[in-house]
Amino acid sequence: MKTTTALATLMALGLTTPALAEIRIGASISATGPAAFLGDPQVKTLEMLVEELNANGGINGEEVTLIHYDDGGDPNKARTFATRLIEDDEVVAIIGGTTTGATMSILSVAEDAEIPFISLAGAIEIIDPVRPFTFKTPHTDRMACQKIFEDIQARGFTNVAMISGTDGFGASMQAQCKQVIGDYGLTLVADESYNPTDADMTAQLTKIRNTDGVEALVNPGFGQGPSIVTRNYAQLGLDIPFYQSHGVASNGFIDLAGADAAEGVRLPGTALLVADILPDDDAQKEIALAYKTAFEDKTGTPVSTFGGYAHDAFLILTDAIARAGSPEPQAIRDAIEATEGLVGTTGTYTFSPEDHLGLDLSAFRMLEIQNGAWTLVE
């Protein structure tokens, strides 16, 4: 059986021994519904990691039990399941919140109950302001805007157009991009939007094409919308640089959009998508390759950034439980907040009382699709 680096980290510290007791970890994840392409690899990742960890002795002699529910991306279901996990299942911590809406519901329950919660969603509102018991693994939407604008600026462009989804993720990232665009000397000259259920965005893109001076296009959004925008972009023959968000950083996006249409698209992503081509001295190469290999061997499907968020959440949580020496929620929370230099697939995490994300902009890699595959932008 292959051992992921998340498990190997615990084994190297001598923190796995023959399992004697039980630590209950909860999860509410969107395994079905509109966000299933995000949640499905997250559930599979957690199940795989729990199986591997227990096969090697658990944490400090205690077996880990994963209790998970499928909230389908419904915030009301997520709230109900969070309550059930805490009150009925008596979990010591929760991983989940595939979407921002589900996350906001879960965190309100977790904070009231003082149970550690690690979110898998992107919006900055999850950890800003900092809440005592809530942490998260993905980069924020604000960071994605900053990474994109940094690249646009470096390429010598100044006039930017946006076409954003009106879903929670798209609207949040659109707002964050507007707040920081001026920091890079850029001007927003066109601002269009679309509904998640729209089947064609040609009208909005035509308006952008007819706007004088547009030099680059940014698409905050996730789900199927960005793939439709990408196909329409290609159909209209737009030849300006095109940026997607980290919300579609997976091979599934290339498949949905079509390799020809997606050719040249850039987005901020994680080391996981380019693990095979990272330099040997890259701090994340070992853990990214280990998880990629284990997941693909186990499931027969390509690894995704979104599963990587769950991998890192499990790593952060189990590492904290091991260091705390106790499965008590307050002790786990304190240990998570004291995490320093923990290398994951998404970045290297260092939390503090003022920072419950633990990542900086260097954790993002600017990626470009070339010949139907992800490549690193040098």
Brief overview, please?
The chain has helices spanning 5-12, 36-55, 75-87, 100-113, 141-154, 168-180, 202-209, 225-235, 251-257, 259-262, 285-299, 305-324, 329-337, and strands spanning 21-29, 62-70, 93-96, 117-119, 134-136, 159-165, 187-194, 216-219, 242-244, 266-269, 342-343, 348-349, 365-370, 373-376. With 378 residues, the protein is α/β, with parallel strands linked by helices.
The side-by-side strand order for the widest beta sheet comes to 2-1-3-4-5
Q: What's the count of strands? A: 14
* End-to-end CA span: 36 Å
Order of helices and strands: HEHEHEHEEHEHEHEHEHHEHHHEEEE
Low-confidence stretches: 16-20
Q: What's the pLDDT, averaged over the residues?
A: 94
Number of continuous helical runs: 13
**Helical content, roughly?**
40-55%
Largest sheet: 5 strands, parallel
Shape field: globular
Radius of gyration: 20 Å
Strand content: 15-25%
Structural class: alpha/beta
How would you explain this protein's 3D organization?
- It is a single chain.
- It contains 13 helices and 14 strands.
- Residues 16-20 have low confidence and may be disordered.
- With 378 residues, the chain is an alpha/beta fold.
- β6, α6 (168-180) and β7 (187-194) form a beta-alpha-beta unit.
- α1 packs parallel to α12.
- It is globular, with a radius of gyration of 20 Å.
- The strands form four sheets. It has a five-stranded parallel beta sheet, sandwiched between helices.
Structural key phrases:
single chain; 378 residues; alpha/beta; five-stranded parallel beta sheet; four-stranded parallel beta sheet; 13 helices
